[in-house]
Design goal:
Length: about 325
C-alpha cells in the first residue's frame, strides 16, 4: 500500500471518529422524554443505502472514466474540483437554516443549524479525495462505508455554528459577548408533534460561549425514533415530514433574553416529481480559482442587511461555509 493510500485511510478514520463521536467531546445527554427505539424499517435511517450518484460521476470524470471531454481544453481534474465544491455548497445551503440575533445597531450574531445529510457526506468525501489527489479503487464504497458508520448510531446529526459580524483582537479592550443556549431544551419536532430533546451533544455548547473573539461550533444528535404508548414512532417521517423544525425557548446574550427561535430546514416537497438529478456541467469553461478549493478553518462572518436576491454574495457565503464544514468533518491536517 502506498503512502498516499495510507494517508487517505487515516483521513477516513479521522472523519468517522468525528462523526461517530468520542468520550472526550461528544457527550450523552440527560434522560429524554421518550425511550429511544429502533424503527422496524431501514428506510427511516436516511444514512443507510444512499447512492452517491452525482459525487461518483464527478470523481470518475476526474479519473478520466466518465463524462464528455471538455471542449474548452481545461484540465478534467480541475473541472471536477470545481463541480465537487459546487455540489458540497449546494447541499450545505439546502440542509441549513439560520437565525440572526441583533445585539445592537451595528452588531449581531448568527446561529446556523446544518443537517449532516448523506449528500453532504458524499460531497465532503469527493472533495477531500480530489483535494488530496489520492486515487481510491472504489469511490462509492468509500462513501457508503462512511455513511454506514453514522447509520449505526440511529440518530440525526446536526452541526450548530455560532458566528458574529465582527470579532475583536484579544489584546484590545472590549465587552464580552457571552451567549448561553439551553441546549437540552433545543427540541426537534417529530412527525406526530412530539418535542424531542437531543440524545447526544457537545459539552461545550451547554457552557457560556464568548463570541467576542472567535466563532464557535458543535454537534447535536437526535434519535431516529422514540417509543410512545408501546409504538416506535419515527421522528422524521419520509411520508409526512416536509420540514425539519428545531425550536429553542430562549437565547441569552450577556444575561439579556432574546426570546425563542426556530430553525426550519426543508426536508422534502409535498409533491415529489421523479425528475433526473441535476448533473454536473463539465463543459462549462473552468473560470475557477483552484486556490479556493481547500478546506477553511473558520466560517464566514455574516454581513447585515444583505438581500436574498444578492446571488453573488450568497454564492460566496455558502461556498465558504462549505469549505468550513469540509474542514471540520474531515478533521485532517491541511497544507
Amino acid at each position: 500500500m502506498s503512502v498516499y493510500s495510507l494517508r487517505w485511510k487515516w483521513e477516513c478514520v479521522l472523519l468517522l471518529i468525528l462523526l461517530v463521536g468520542c468520550d472526550s467531546g461528544f457527550s450523552s445527554a440527560s434522560a429524554t422524554a421518550y425511550p429511544v427505539c429502533t424503527p422496524a424499517t431501514e428506510e427511516a435511517n436516511l444514512y443507510r443505502n444512499a447512492t452517491p450518484t452525482i459525487a461518483n460521476m464527478i470523481y470518475q470524470f476526474a479519473q478520466g472514466g466518465g463524462g464528455p471531454i471538455p471542449v474548452t481544453g481545461d484540465n478534467p481534474a480541475l473541472i471536477a474540483k470545481r463541480e465537487s465544491l459546487k455540489l458540497l455548497k449546494e447541499q450545505i445551503r439546502k440542509w441549513s437554516a439560520f437565525v440572526d440575533v441583533p445585539i445592537s445597531t451595528d452588531y449581531f450574531i448568527r446561529i446556523t443549524l446544518t443537517l449532516i445529510s448523506p449528500q453532504m457526506i458524499e460531497g465532503v468525501v469527493a472533495s477531500q479525495i480530489l483535494y488530496s489527489e489520492i486515487p481510491v479503487s472504489n469511490f462509492s464504497q468509500e462513501v457508503l462505508n462512511g455513511e454506514e458508520q453514522i447509520a449505526k448510531r440511529e440518530e440525526l446529526l446536526f452541526l450548530l455554528m455560532l458566528t458574529a459580524n465582527e470579532y475583536r483582537d484579544r489584546l484590545l479592550p472590549g465587552d464580552r459577548m457571552m451567549v448561553k443556549l439551553p441546549i437540552q431544551q433545543m427540541t426537534l419536532s417529530s412527525s406526530s408533534n412530539e418535542q424531542i430533546p437531543p440524545r447526544h451533544k457537545d459539552h461545550h455548547l451547554e457552557e457560556a460561549i464568548n463570541l467576542r473573539f472567535q466563532p464557535e461550533y458543535g454537534y447535536l444528535a437526535y434519535p431516529l425514533a422514540v417509543l410512545k404508548e408501546g409504538t416506535c414512532h419515527v421522528i422524521v417521517d419520509k411520508v409526512y415530514t416536509t420540514t425539519v423544525t428545531i425550536h429553542i425557548p430562549d437565547i441569552i446574550v450577556n444575561d439579556v433574553s432574546y426570546g425563542p427561535q426556530t430553525w426550519n430546514i426543508e426536508y422534502q416537497p409535498l409533491v415529489k416529481i421523479n425528475a433526473p438529478e441535476k448533473i454536473p456541467d463539465f463543459q462549462q469553461p473552468l473560470n475557477f480559482d483552484v486556490n479556493q478549493f481547500a478546506p477553511m478553518v473558520d466560517p464566514p462572518s455574516p454581513i447585515n442587511g444583505v438581500l436574498k436576491s444578492d446571488n453573488a454574495y450568497w454564492d460566496d457565503y455558502w461556498s465558504q461555509t462549505a469549505r468550513f464544514i469540509w474542514y471540520h468533518l474531515t478533521d485532517t491536517v491541511h497544507q
